[in-house]
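Predict structure. Chain length: 261.
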Amino acid sequence: MLAFLRSPGAVALTAAIALTGCSRSRQQPVQKSETATPVYFKADPATAGTITGQILFAGKKPQRKVVDMDEDPQCSKLHKTAVINDAIAVNRNGTLANVFVYVKDGLGGKQFEPPAVPVALNQKGCWFEPRVVGMQSGQMLTVSNSDPVTHNVHPRPQANREWNQSQAPGEPPINRRFMHPEVMIRVKCNIHSWMHAWIGVVDHPYFAVTGSDGAFELPNLPPGAYTIEAWQEKLGSQTQQITVAQSGKAVVDFTFQGADE
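Prediction complete.
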Protein backbone atom coordinates (compact mmCIF):
# COMPACT_ATOMS: atom_id res chain seq x y z
CA MET A 1 0.00 0.00 0.00
CA LEU A 2 2.83 2.39 0.87
CA ALA A 3 4.55 1.54 -2.41
CA PHE A 4 1.39 2.40 -4.33
CA LEU A 5 1.10 5.81 -2.69
CA ARG A 6 4.70 6.55 -3.60
CA SER A 7 4.27 5.59 -7.27
CA PRO A 8 4.13 8.40 -9.92
CA GLY A 9 0.62 7.36 -11.05
CA ALA A 10 -0.79 7.62 -7.58
CA VAL A 11 0.72 11.07 -7.09
CA ALA A 12 -0.84 12.28 -10.34
CA LEU A 13 -4.26 10.84 -9.42
CA THR A 14 -4.16 12.47 -5.97
CA ALA A 15 -3.25 15.84 -7.51
CA ALA A 16 -6.09 15.60 -10.03
CA ILE A 17 -8.61 14.86 -7.27
CA ALA A 18 -7.32 17.79 -5.23
CA LEU A 19 -7.56 20.18 -8.19
CA THR A 20 -11.10 19.02 -8.97
CA GLY A 21 -12.14 19.62 -5.40
CA CYS A 22 -10.64 23.11 -5.39
CA SER A 23 -12.33 23.92 -8.70
CA ARG A 24 -15.71 22.88 -7.36
CA SER A 25 -15.22 24.88 -4.19
CA ARG A 26 -14.63 28.05 -6.23
CA GLN A 27 -17.82 27.67 -8.25
CA GLN A 28 -20.59 30.09 -7.33
CA PRO A 29 -24.10 28.74 -6.83
CA VAL A 30 -26.29 29.10 -9.91
CA GLN A 31 -28.50 32.16 -9.58
CA LYS A 32 -31.92 32.16 -11.16
CA SER A 33 -32.47 35.27 -13.25
CA GLU A 34 -35.26 37.41 -11.88
CA THR A 35 -36.97 40.21 -13.77
CA ALA A 36 -36.89 43.37 -11.74
CA THR A 37 -40.31 44.71 -10.81
CA PRO A 38 -40.79 48.00 -12.67
CA VAL A 39 -41.15 51.13 -10.59
CA TYR A 40 -44.21 52.95 -11.92
CA PHE A 41 -44.56 56.70 -11.53
CA LYS A 42 -47.66 58.18 -9.93
CA ALA A 43 -48.24 61.91 -10.02
CA ASP A 44 -48.70 63.71 -6.72
CA PRO A 45 -52.31 64.97 -6.71
CA ALA A 46 -51.25 67.84 -4.44
CA THR A 47 -49.02 69.36 -7.13
CA ALA A 48 -50.32 67.88 -10.41
CA GLY A 49 -51.74 70.19 -13.05
CA THR A 50 -53.97 69.98 -16.13
CA ILE A 51 -53.70 70.92 -19.80
CA THR A 52 -56.91 71.72 -21.67
CA GLY A 53 -57.63 73.06 -25.12
CA GLN A 54 -59.58 72.84 -28.36
CA ILE A 55 -58.79 71.75 -31.89
CA LEU A 56 -60.06 74.52 -34.19
CA PHE A 57 -60.77 74.28 -37.91
CA ALA A 58 -60.14 77.19 -40.26
CA GLY A 59 -60.93 77.51 -43.94
CA LYS A 60 -63.54 76.01 -46.18
CA LYS A 61 -65.45 73.15 -44.65
CA PRO A 62 -64.84 69.96 -46.66
CA GLN A 63 -67.65 68.68 -48.81
CA ARG A 64 -69.55 65.80 -47.26
CA LYS A 65 -68.82 62.56 -49.09
CA VAL A 66 -71.08 59.54 -49.00
CA VAL A 67 -69.50 56.13 -48.36
CA ASP A 68 -70.39 53.68 -51.12
CA MET A 69 -71.20 50.29 -49.59
CA ASP A 70 -72.96 48.84 -52.64
CA GLU A 71 -70.27 46.18 -53.12
CA ASP A 72 -71.72 44.43 -50.07
CA PRO A 73 -75.56 44.60 -50.06
CA GLN A 74 -75.64 43.30 -46.49
CA CYS A 75 -73.72 46.37 -45.36
CA SER A 76 -75.99 48.72 -47.30
CA LYS A 77 -79.07 47.22 -45.66
CA LEU A 78 -77.70 48.09 -42.23
CA HIS A 79 -78.21 51.82 -42.88
CA LYS A 80 -81.46 53.71 -43.38
CA THR A 81 -79.58 56.88 -44.35
CA ALA A 82 -76.33 57.56 -46.16
CA VAL A 83 -73.08 57.07 -44.27
CA ILE A 84 -70.80 60.11 -44.43
CA ASN A 85 -67.03 59.81 -44.61
CA ASP A 86 -65.75 61.40 -41.39
CA ALA A 87 -62.03 61.55 -42.24
CA ILE A 88 -62.29 65.29 -41.51
CA ALA A 89 -65.07 65.65 -38.97
CA VAL A 90 -65.87 69.35 -38.49
CA ASN A 91 -68.16 70.03 -35.55
CA ARG A 92 -70.93 72.62 -35.51
CA ASN A 93 -68.84 74.92 -33.33
CA GLY A 94 -65.99 75.01 -35.87
CA THR A 95 -63.80 72.47 -34.11
CA LEU A 96 -62.53 69.05 -35.14
CA ALA A 97 -63.45 65.63 -33.81
CA ASN A 98 -61.24 62.53 -34.02
CA VAL A 99 -58.00 64.39 -33.29
CA PHE A 100 -55.45 62.51 -31.19
CA VAL A 101 -53.72 64.79 -28.65
CA TYR A 102 -50.90 63.60 -26.41
CA VAL A 103 -47.74 64.53 -24.53
CA LYS A 104 -44.96 63.94 -27.02
CA ASP A 105 -42.04 64.98 -24.80
CA GLY A 106 -41.32 66.14 -21.26
CA LEU A 107 -42.00 63.13 -19.04
CA GLY A 108 -38.33 62.34 -18.58
CA GLY A 109 -38.44 58.60 -19.06
CA LYS A 110 -41.00 57.95 -16.34
CA GLN A 111 -42.69 54.55 -16.42
CA PHE A 112 -46.46 54.23 -16.09
CA GLU A 113 -48.48 51.13 -15.32
CA PRO A 114 -50.73 50.02 -18.21
CA PRO A 115 -54.44 50.28 -17.31
CA ALA A 116 -56.24 47.03 -16.49
CA VAL A 117 -59.36 48.20 -18.35
CA PRO A 118 -59.17 47.35 -22.09
CA VAL A 119 -59.78 49.77 -24.95
CA ALA A 120 -62.78 48.81 -27.09
CA LEU A 121 -63.03 48.94 -30.88
CA ASN A 122 -66.25 47.78 -32.47
CA GLN A 123 -67.40 46.98 -36.01
CA LYS A 124 -70.97 48.16 -36.41
CA GLY A 125 -72.79 48.97 -39.61
CA CYS A 126 -69.67 47.92 -41.55
CA TRP A 127 -67.86 50.79 -39.86
CA PHE A 128 -65.23 51.03 -37.14
CA GLU A 129 -66.41 52.70 -33.94
CA PRO A 130 -64.75 54.84 -32.82
CA ARG A 131 -62.67 55.96 -35.77
CA VAL A 132 -59.76 57.09 -33.56
CA VAL A 133 -58.78 55.54 -30.24
CA GLY A 134 -55.89 56.05 -27.86
CA MET A 135 -54.28 53.52 -25.55
CA GLN A 136 -51.20 52.80 -23.51
CA SER A 137 -48.52 50.37 -24.61
CA GLY A 138 -49.19 47.03 -22.95
CA GLN A 139 -52.89 47.79 -22.51
CA MET A 140 -55.42 45.34 -23.92
CA LEU A 141 -57.29 46.17 -27.13
CA THR A 142 -60.65 44.38 -27.50
CA VAL A 143 -62.14 44.26 -31.01
CA SER A 144 -65.77 43.19 -31.41
CA ASN A 145 -68.01 42.48 -34.39
CA SER A 146 -71.61 43.61 -33.92
CA ASP A 147 -72.52 43.03 -37.58
CA PRO A 148 -74.22 40.09 -39.28
CA VAL A 149 -71.33 39.94 -41.76
CA THR A 150 -67.72 38.78 -41.50
CA HIS A 151 -65.00 41.40 -41.10
CA ASN A 152 -61.23 41.26 -41.24
CA VAL A 153 -59.27 43.28 -38.67
CA HIS A 154 -55.87 44.27 -40.03
CA PRO A 155 -53.72 46.83 -38.16
CA ARG A 156 -50.67 48.05 -40.11
CA PRO A 157 -48.10 49.10 -37.48
CA GLN A 158 -44.46 49.97 -38.07
CA ALA A 159 -43.03 49.67 -34.54
CA ASN A 160 -45.30 46.84 -33.38
CA ARG A 161 -46.16 43.39 -34.66
CA GLU A 162 -48.62 43.34 -37.55
CA TRP A 163 -51.59 41.00 -37.37
CA ASN A 164 -54.52 40.15 -39.58
CA GLN A 165 -57.54 38.25 -38.27
CA SER A 166 -61.01 37.49 -39.62
CA GLN A 167 -63.97 37.86 -37.30
CA ALA A 168 -67.29 36.24 -38.17
CA PRO A 169 -70.66 37.29 -36.73
CA GLY A 170 -71.09 36.15 -33.14
CA GLU A 171 -67.44 35.28 -32.62
CA PRO A 172 -65.82 36.35 -29.34
CA PRO A 173 -63.81 39.59 -29.22
CA ILE A 174 -60.24 39.69 -30.48
CA ASN A 175 -57.82 40.61 -27.69
CA ARG A 176 -54.43 42.06 -28.60
CA ARG A 177 -51.73 44.30 -27.16
CA PHE A 178 -49.30 46.76 -28.74
CA MET A 179 -46.12 46.75 -26.67
CA HIS A 180 -44.38 49.78 -28.19
CA PRO A 181 -45.44 53.43 -28.55
CA GLU A 182 -46.60 54.29 -32.06
CA VAL A 183 -48.52 57.30 -33.37
CA MET A 184 -50.49 56.28 -35.38
CA ILE A 185 -51.44 52.71 -36.33
CA ARG A 186 -53.79 52.43 -39.30
CA VAL A 187 -56.44 49.70 -39.12
CA LYS A 188 -58.33 48.41 -42.13
CA CYS A 189 -60.76 45.67 -43.06
CA ASN A 190 -59.52 43.58 -45.98
CA ILE A 191 -63.10 42.67 -46.90
CA HIS A 192 -64.63 46.16 -46.85
CA SER A 193 -62.22 48.72 -48.31
CA TRP A 194 -64.01 51.77 -46.87
CA MET A 195 -63.51 50.70 -43.25
CA HIS A 196 -60.67 52.51 -41.48
CA ALA A 197 -59.66 53.24 -37.90
CA TRP A 198 -56.59 54.69 -36.20
CA ILE A 199 -54.93 53.70 -32.93
CA GLY A 200 -52.57 55.98 -31.04
CA VAL A 201 -50.27 54.07 -28.68
CA VAL A 202 -48.19 55.93 -26.09
CA ASP A 203 -46.28 54.78 -23.01
CA HIS A 204 -48.12 57.07 -20.58
CA PRO A 205 -51.70 58.05 -19.72
CA TYR A 206 -51.56 61.63 -21.02
CA PHE A 207 -53.57 61.47 -24.23
CA ALA A 208 -57.07 62.25 -25.47
CA VAL A 209 -59.25 62.04 -28.58
CA THR A 210 -61.48 65.01 -29.35
CA GLY A 211 -65.23 64.53 -29.69
CA SER A 212 -68.22 66.57 -30.82
CA ASP A 213 -67.01 69.72 -29.01
CA GLY A 214 -63.40 69.52 -30.25
CA ALA A 215 -62.06 69.81 -26.70
CA PHE A 216 -59.44 67.78 -24.87
CA GLU A 217 -58.08 67.50 -21.35
CA LEU A 218 -54.83 66.01 -20.05
CA PRO A 219 -55.22 65.86 -16.26
CA ASN A 220 -52.94 64.82 -13.40
CA LEU A 221 -49.73 65.99 -15.06
CA PRO A 222 -46.66 66.56 -12.87
CA PRO A 223 -45.35 70.14 -13.08
CA GLY A 224 -42.94 70.69 -15.95
CA ALA A 225 -42.37 71.76 -19.55
CA TYR A 226 -44.03 69.65 -22.24
CA THR A 227 -44.35 69.25 -25.96
CA ILE A 228 -47.96 68.57 -26.94
CA GLU A 229 -48.82 67.09 -30.32
CA ALA A 230 -52.19 67.06 -32.10
CA TRP A 231 -52.65 64.57 -34.96
CA GLN A 232 -55.38 64.53 -37.60
CA GLU A 233 -55.46 61.79 -40.23
CA LYS A 234 -55.81 64.09 -43.26
CA LEU A 235 -54.46 67.41 -41.98
CA GLY A 236 -51.23 66.18 -40.41
CA SER A 237 -49.84 67.02 -36.98
CA GLN A 238 -48.83 70.10 -35.01
CA THR A 239 -46.80 70.57 -31.84
CA GLN A 240 -46.67 73.26 -29.18
CA GLN A 241 -44.57 73.76 -26.06
CA ILE A 242 -46.26 74.58 -22.78
CA THR A 243 -45.32 74.71 -19.10
CA VAL A 244 -47.51 73.36 -16.33
CA ALA A 245 -47.05 74.97 -12.92
CA GLN A 246 -47.69 73.24 -9.63
CA SER A 247 -51.45 72.65 -9.37
CA GLY A 248 -51.71 74.83 -12.47
CA LYS A 249 -54.10 74.84 -15.40
CA ALA A 250 -52.56 75.48 -18.80
CA VAL A 251 -54.48 76.05 -22.03
CA VAL A 252 -53.23 75.26 -25.53
CA ASP A 253 -55.33 75.39 -28.71
CA PHE A 254 -54.47 74.08 -32.16
CA THR A 255 -55.82 75.36 -35.48
CA PHE A 256 -55.85 73.16 -38.58
CA GLN A 257 -56.37 74.60 -42.04
CA GLY A 258 -58.84 72.98 -44.42
CA ALA A 259 -57.49 70.74 -47.15
CA ASP A 260 -58.86 68.56 -49.90
CA GLU A 261 -59.60 65.01 -48.80
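Summary: Residues 8-26 form the longest helix (19 residues).
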